[in-house]
Amino acid sequence: MKRSAFIVFSSVILTLMFSNCGNSGTRESSDATVEEPATAAASDLPAIHKYGIKSGIVTYENTGFGLTTKSILYFDEWGTKEAEEKYDQDGNLTETSLCDGKNMYLLIHKDKTAYSRGECWRGVAYKFDWEEAQKSGTEYKPTKLANLNIAGKDCESFSLEISGSKTVYAGWNNISFMIETPAGNSTVINKAVSIEENVPVPGDKLAVPADYKAATM
User: Fold this and answer.
1) What is the C-alpha separation between 136 and 44, in angstroms, rounded?
2) Which helix (H) or strand (E) holds 37?
3) Cα 105–110–116 angle (5° rounding)?
4) Which of 40, 66, 141, 151 is most buried, most CB within 10 Å of its CB?
5) pTM higher than the cut 0.85
6) 3 state DSSP class of 17
7) Distance CA 39, CA 115 (A)
8) CA 36 to CA 32: how far, in whole Å?
9) What is the pLDDT of residues 176-200, one digit of tens each?
């Protein structure tokens, strides 16, 4: 029962981080299983300026369905390169979503496999951006909310309604600090608990390990 709840919980967390009106990730629809062909060579892709600080390490606590897990976001070069590690309820690192500055990968650590996910045009983590949220369409009812203090930062916040459910977002310098959404009889929350600003990020966190085998999804 606990394992089933964890699978559902993980799926909701994954949806929170990679959906949200196409704000981040690869160029694919929410129900697509095949990547859209790249329209430009990876070397021709422009560098993004995703966040308001050059580098950082953000630790999140994920709660819902009676479970608590951890995830860690590493980014450098203003978010041009970033990686998001996900841990299970026992604290074991299970997978990493990675943008190396050109391409996007999903690392499955138990198999030592790196799945290619196409060009990396918006990074891997959700970008908090009220201006973009306002353009998401009136059906989402974008609403500006009061600021929230999260992990010691004065975060802006807003809400969007998706399929009749209101999701609350909070962030600082375009970094997502919280996503809170109802999920069945529970509420799933992805919330920052600490941030290290403008710190050196280990290079091995932002690259595919040399001993991982390549695969396609």
Assistant:
1) 28
2) none
3) 15
4) 151
5) no
6) helix
7) 20
8) 9
9) 999 999 988 889 999 999 999 999 9
